[in-house]
Write a structure and sequence with these properties.
about 35% helix; single chain; alpha+beta; about 15% strand; binds FE2/S2 (inorganic) cluster
């Protein structure tokens, strides 16, 4: 079946065999958007996070057929090399990543949170991000980067 998706500001058409196929697969395999990652496939790690109408969702458990005309944003749509999102700038400035596999989950989850919460406390940031996993243990740097981005976003 043909399916229309609004992704990163563009309307695109994809062909899918299974309406239950996860949005993650459509983004990665049909649209070559490799920001969202496959981690657990069970909504447990956050690696696959994208925004749906501004809300962070786990694309590994979201059937592509359920999207309707919602606006999907992936990491590639969050900023540009010339105008990165403050979180992307902060990640570089704090030299956060080790293997980098988890980056998408943290940035997309934090971006959704910071879009609605100005000047969050450290406790609020930790609560907002508690469902995202990093197996390399970069949590201290991640927290610094999110706090730095929050300051940039005023
Ligand atoms: S891959 Fe979706 S939450 Fe882990
Ligand atoms: S940097 Fe490796 S999993 Fe987070």
């Amino acid at each position: 079946m043909r399916k229309s998706l609004n992704v990163n500001g563009r309307t695109v058409q994809i062909t899918i065999d299974d309406p239950d196929m996860p949005l993650l697969y459509a983004l990665r395999d049909n649209l070559a958007l490799h920001g969202p990652r496959f981690g657990c496939g069970l909504a447990q790690c956050g690696a696959c996070t994208v925004h749906m109408d501004g809300q962070a969702i786990r694309s590994c458990i979201t059937p592509v057929s359920s999207i309707g005309d919602a606006k999907i944003v992936t990491l590639a749509g969050l900023g540009t090399p010339d105008k990165p999102h403050p979180l992307q700038t902060a990640y570089v400035e704090e030299q956060v990543p080790q293997c980098g596999y988890c980056i998408n989950g943290w940035i997309m989850t934090a971006a959704s949170f910071l879009a609605t919460k100005k000047k969050p406390t450290e406790a609020e940031i930790k609560t907002a991000l508690e469902g995202v996993k990093c197996r390399c243990g970069t949590h201290v740097s991640i927290l610094k980067a999110v706090k730095r981005a929050a300051e940039m976003m005023g």
